[in-house]
Amino acid sequence: MKLELRTTILMLFIFTLSLVGSLLFTLGTVNYYSLLSASSGVKVSYFPPYFELLYIVVGILVFTGIVLLLIRLHLTKIITVFFVFISVLVLSEFFDILLSPLLNVIGTNVIFISLATAILLTIYYFKYADNMSRNVVNVMIFITIGAVVSLALGPIPALILIGVIGVYDYIAVFVTKHMITLANGLTSGSFLAGITLAAKKQVRRLALLGGGDIVFPAVFINAVALSYPIGVTISVFATAVLGLSLILFFGKKGKAYPAMAVIAPLQILAFGACILVRFI
Question: pTM of the predicted model, to two decimals?
Fold first, then answer.
């Protein structure tokens, strides 16, 4: 996956910006639902039981299997319809949280404006957007998913999740290699499965960072930020960036690498070291 320096730095910048954005969005979401709970009298729970973790893992496996089957059957239009629905749903949540402070002040219907904006942006994404514009929308989607999942799990389930995903990513890329098929199938459609950058001197060659490689590190960072001191958050944040940096700078050119297989262990080690230090 070794890239030219310009592309590598840009990819790291987008990755880092996405993690920061997801963390800020998580804090904003907590504040939003706390205010909503206080005004409505309805208690909002952020940390459901561990079956949520099982639900997410099983959902990922089932979703991957279905998408792979549709790719092999050349039914990518069905995948596109599904992604249109998901995009509208996630972007609606994004704008709901982002615009609610302003729209509530002026007395505008937040849900209607958020949904309408999400629909218009989704139409633009699938019909008119260029590669970089799609990257921007993808980042909005990834930071929202990272925030929502982190609030659903909490820190320890999130740690288990990235551990499972790290092992799964390694198997999916190096053993079964179905993740490569999945990435190729998705990026060849009318949407992107992650962040893609064209090398300056090789326009046809794309560098792809999968959406999960952004979402899952963000989930753990966000969950840790809500429950532990800032030093722990900085540690798991820095090791996520370090993990991707190792792949981008030292990976072999043209070879696919499972980013989570590197990022997850580093984040877990950093978290464990911080917890150990607190007890010494």
Answer: 0.87
